[in-house]
Amino acid sequence: MRIQGGNSKALLGRETTGEVLDTREHRGIVSYDPTELVITVRAGTPLSELMQVLDAAGQMLPCEPPDFGCATLGGMVAAGLSGPRRPWSGSVRDFVLGTRVITGLGKHLCFGGEVMKNVAGYDVSRLMAGSFGCLGVLTEVSLKVLPKPRLCSSIALQMDSSQALARLAEWGQQPMPISAASHDGQVLRLRLEGGEGSV
């Protein structure tokens, strides 16, 4: 069996064959209270749809997952892909609070919950991040979300690779509002996000 949502990550992981189990019909928001900073979503929900809901409430997925134009929430968690914010905010796994899964034997299992502090033992729900569906088919995921930064600014600084590496190491030791960085060999580009006093 081949588990598939938007099929945006077919080139990742091991090659799978078999009949396609398409999760895109299993979509929608199960529960969301913006004041709690937690959202529970069905696995076939397109990331673009989820981002619209969060954006309307002034919130975001802190791991900034890539969309590829058709990615689903289940695929995001199963692949464990995070975006350029990862070194500063964390990975997909860091924001998974709970999951519902169907195993290869057809059993429906529920792991974790909808709270950050879960003392019920090993956190199996976070193990689902990056598992590529090997542990079961994701049906629902509860995620921690964060408020969007008030301001965002980008800067480009001309410098070679060794200078850029030294600067990033130096800035990493300071409370800088960096949320993304890239270097192309000649230019270091930074995205700064936060409140008025920090950006």
TrEMBL record:
SUPFAM superfamilies reported for this sequence: FAD-binding/transporter-associated domain-like (SSF56176)
What keywords were assigned to this record?
A: FAD, Flavoprotein
Cited Pfam families:
FAD_binding_4
Q: Which GO terms describe its molecular function?
A: FAD binding
Record-annotated FAD-binding PCMH-type domain positions: 1-148
Q: Which Gene3D superfamilies would you find in this protein's record?
A: 3.30.465.10
Q: Which PANTHER family match?
A: D-LACTATE DEHYDROGENASE (PTHR11748), GLYCOLATE OXIDASE SUBUNIT GLCE (PTHR11748:SF103)
Recorded hits in NCBIfam families, A to Z, give:
PRK11282.1
Would you tell me the protein name for this molecule? Glycolate oxidase FAD binding subunit
The organism named in the record is Pseudomonas savastanoi pv. glycinea str. race 4
Q: What is the lineage of its organism?
A: Bacteria, Pseudomonadati, Pseudomonadota, Gammaproteobacteria, Pseudomonadales
